[in-house]
Write a structure and sequence with these properties.
The chain has about 350 residues and is of the alpha/beta class. It folds into two domains: about 5-50 and about 260-350, Aspartate Aminotransferase, domain 1 (Alpha-Beta Complex), CATH 3.90.1150; about 55-255, 3-Layer(aba) Sandwich (Aspartate Aminotransferase, domain 2). It is built from twelve helices and 14 strands. The chain has helices at about 25-30, 55-60, 70-75, 90-95, 115-125, 135-140, 160-170, 225-235, 245-255, 255-280, 300-310, 335-350; strands at about 5, 40, 85-90, 105-110, 125-130, 145-150, 175-180, 200-205, 220-225, 285-290, 290-295, 310, 315, 325-330. The two termini are about 25 Å apart.
Length: about 350
């Protein structure tokens, strides 16, 4: 699915790549000062974890792998000592490394989903097959690797743990891999497979960028066998994750009180967003508590009209078998909410 973050602006036709954000470029294209924008294009928690003060010695000393972070990560994720647990500089770095650890393989990836998975496997020389969820069972016997995003980004679709473990069991018969990207799982009802990752060929990726709102930290976790985590670590090289990042990660993962409160806030805000888009006639066909997914035949027109009103969203152009669609993230604060609640109904009404 093609993903266009913004269009038009000052007579130009501006097309972004397969990610949200890029607010600087949007501000230039639409000639609107950056401070006026409501950027809800990324699906990142707009009220993220309050980063603590970082002690001077954290800046002055190299990171050490035997600090408290691994224990905190294990406690947070519920994994046992039999599961490998590796802190990494964002899961993006890992999904670029994983294809380097296999001989040429046939890899199933989501037809609608985070495009970097497919890109990374293709760039490493693997054969990539894009699959809709309903096609996975039939395609699985011919795959060596299956990549699943749970919940899916951008559709919000959930896969049960039983389904995922069934797919893994089939792949493992031929030394295959199941890679589960759980970047948005904290904002959903999905069950993490991290505690099951003592199984050969099961790889789970977690992120602090979405639920914790710490995308700029570039920090995440890999859960798999100790052997595979070691192989990833060797590819990333020494000190891949900075000492300040490790310090903040440990602080955030250990703060259960903030996490519990944040889940309630995100759920309430997402329901407010779902009610808003539904009230104006947009079909809210998928979500997690960080975004709402709305297929619409005039997605491009709506995205452009919103951008002209300083609201940046994700827009997916679609293809022959996939609808064009919009993905709305959560506004930050009442002023942004009021702006979206004012301009969105006017834009949708103008299309009728």
């Amino acid at each position: 699915m093609n993903d266009l973050s913004f269009f038009g602006g000052a007579g130009a036709h501006v097309v972004a790549n397969e990610h949200g954000g890029q607010l600087n470029a949007a501000a230039r294209a639409y000639q609107i000062p950056i401070e006026q924008w409501v950027d809800i294009s990324t699906g990142i928690n707009p009220n993220g974890y309050p980063v603590p003060s970082i002690p001077a010695n954290v800046w002055q000393r190299l990171p050490e792998a035997d600090d408290e972070l691994t224990l905190v990560s294990r406690n947070w994720s519920g994994v046992g000592e039999n599961v490998g647990c590796l802190a990494v500089p964002g899961t993006q770095a890992v999904l670029q490394v994983l294809p380097q650890l296999r001989a040429r393989s046939r890899v199933g990836v989501p037809a609608i989903g985070y495009a970097e998975h497919a890109r990374a496997w293709r760039m490493a020389g693997h054969e990539v097959v894009e699959l809709m969820p309903e096609d996975i069972d039939a395609a699985l016997p011919a795959l060596d690797v299956l990549v699943v995003i749970n919940p899916n980004n951008p559709t919000g679709q959930l896969f049960s743990a039983d389904t995922l473990l069934h797919w893994h069991a089939q792949l493992s018969l031929r030394q295959g891999w199941l890679v589960v990207d759980e970047a948005f799982i904290e904002a959903s009802d999905a069950q993490s497979l991290a505690p099951q990752c003592d199984r050969d060929g099961l790889i789970v990726l977690r992120s602090l960028g979405k639920f914790f709102g710490l995308a700029g930290l570039r920090a995440g976790l890999v859960f798999s066998t100790e052997g595979l985590c070691h192989a990833v670590s060797e590819k990333l090289g020494p000190w891949a994750l900075s000492h300040p990042a490790r310090f903040v990660m440990a602080h955030a993962l250990a703060n259960n009180v903030w996490q519990q409160k944040n889940r309630l806030v995100l759920n309430a805000d997402r329901q407010r967003l779902s009610n808003l888009v539904s009230a104006v006639g947009l079909p809210a066909l998928g979500h997690c508590d960080l975004f709402v997914y709305c297929p619409h035949p005039k997605a491009v027109t709506i995205a452009d009209a919103l951008a002209k009103q300083a609201v940046l969203i994700r827009c997916f152009m679609g293809s022959l078998n996939q609808p064009s669609a919009l993905r709305f993230g959560l506004p930050a604060g009442e002023e942004q909410w009021r702006h979206l609640e004012t301009v969105l109904p006017k834009i949708i009404n103008s299309l009728r």
